[in-house]
Amino acid sequence: MYVTAVMANSTFQLIEDCNATNRALYKFYAAIMIVIFILALPLNASVLHLFIVKLKFWKSNTNNVFLFNLVLADILLLICLPIKAHNFIQGERRSGNEVVCKGMLFMLFLNRGASIAFLTVTSVDRYFNVVHPGRKNFLRALKKSPLISILIWLLLLPLTIPTMLKNFDCCNSHKNGDPKDDTLIKDVVDSMREAVFFTQIVIPFVILVYCTVHIVKRLRMKTVGNTTKLRRAVFLVTSVMVVFSFCFLPCTIARMVLLIARVEEWPEYRQDKAAVAFDGLMVLSYMDCLLDPLVYCFCSTKFKSLYLTNYFPCLVKDTAIPPDSSTGNTQNCTRTNVI
Fold first, then answer.
1. Are 88 and 227 within one domain?
2. pLDDT digits (tens, 9 = 90+) for 282-326
3. What is the pTM of this model?
4. Are 47 and 56 contacting, i.e. CB atoms less than 8 angstroms apart?
5. Directed axis angle between helix 288-299 and helix 301-311, to 10°?
6. Residue 230's domain is classified under what CATH number?
7. Domain match, 314 and 229 both
8. Is the same domain home to 226 and 319?
9. Which of 4, 10, 85 is nearest to 272 (CA)?
10. CA distance 333 to 323
11. What number of other Cβ atoms are within 10 A of residue 89's Cβ?
12. How far is Cα 258 from Cα 77, in angstroms, rounded to an integer?
């Protein structure tokens, strides 16, 4: 009994100190993050170059302003991955340096929130263009300028405040740790932090489901005329839904299970398993940086053609460029067809 108590206490101490109880598994997590970083950094850098040099997104009448901010958020998120991978290799769930730890929390929360926000805004904009094509909306008025993008970044900044008040990168929330630390202020901070985590994912997911259902319904109602734009809209919102569901919903469910484990005071070894599962599914959420380029392709035929022409010319042949079916633009351009 004494040995069991000592082992439980030891495991609990490891959880509190943010040390990985399964170092081999955390090294595997680190390897996944390194692979994501190696693949996603050049991919997103090339997309960023295309938006700035070729598409000149600030002059665009399409979703390119939103997509530029999406790729910018992905690149900023990628910067955190080598540091996170280094911590995991060292058997730590977070950096022992207070400044680095809080900086990482700030970057991860801000840029993941921005990525989710711009994915959602892109789908909402496509929803208005397809379901309510003749109705004026604030997105259509502001998407030609950086105003709405700046507003989104500014609104996300206050949401990172709860993450900076107290370290929680090791899942230390609600009745986890010394009972003497369970004060009203700590409970309020913990609740705010968890509210930010869940609302960043749940609310956008509900919006995406709504947009997807209505765009698909609109496509089914279309009996005459050109349905290319509608089909592309369906592909877009469906791809966003797939990316969102694959990357963000699993870690949300894991976080919910972990909170239940904390509040109901499950045995420490079960709490540790829940924390390890949550860490792993958070690593899965970083796959978003690799999957977002699919959204760019579904958003614009012109983007896809330009990307292949500039970076993979061996895969294309030169003909006349199609108008961008995502915008209905009919001006003449150069076409690139995939071989």
1. yes
2. 999 999 999 888 787 777 777 888 888 888 888 776 544 455 544
3. 0.80
4. no
5. 120
6. 1.20.1070.10
7. no
8. no
9. 10
10. 7
11. 17
12. 24
